[in-house]
Amino acid sequence: MTETRDEAMMPADLGQRFEAAWNAHDMDAFGRLFHADATFVNRFGTYWRGVDQIVAGHAAIHASIYSDSTLEIDAPDVDPISDDVAILHFWSRLNAGAAHPAGPHPVDTLIMAVATRRAGEWRIQALENVTLVNPRTGETILRR
Predict the structure, then answer these.
(1) Over the range 80-108, which residues count as b (16 or more CB within 10 Å of their CB) and which as e?
(2) Where is the DUF4440 domain (predicted)?
């Protein structure tokens, strides 16, 4: 039996694929990271249920304020729960560009994702993204 690209992929590969889809502003590739019934909480607390809502929410910002943004994602910590479930934690640095109303600036976030394998394919089932801030002042901080 020959493995397809997705079947050979491991949960840790999702971070690299997330970064590549974001940086290419490729919402089709971005959507393929998620199961159809996935959930996503963005760094502002917006909750999307289903890949169609996830892609629509991201397509809007990639067509406007993040149209010239880039994303750098660190290798994730992977905690296997079973053969078909893993929890991933990974740091990301969003580099907003001139299209953002606040102008070019970096933002660090920590992403937690639950990845599941269905029919041999690893995708994200649930993801939450939080911005790194000073808890006393609310000021955004960078980790490095």
Answers:
(1) eeeeeebbbebbbbbbbeebbeeeeeebb
(2) 14-124
Dihedral pair phi/psi, residue 132, rounded to 5°: -75, 120
Task: Residue 99: give its domain's CATH number.
Answer: 3.10.450.50
**Is 13 inside a domain boundary?**
yes
For residue 78, give the nearest of 120, 131, 126, 114 by alpha carbon.
114
The 10s digit of each residue's pLDDT in 42-61 is 999 999 999 999 999 999 99
Residue type, 132: L
H/E element, 14? helix 13-24
Contacts of 61 (CB under 8 A, 6+ apart): none
In a domain, 141, yes or no: no
Is position 136 within any domain?
no
Residue range 7-47, pLDDT digits in tens = 468 999 999 999 999 999 999 999 999 999 999 999 999 99
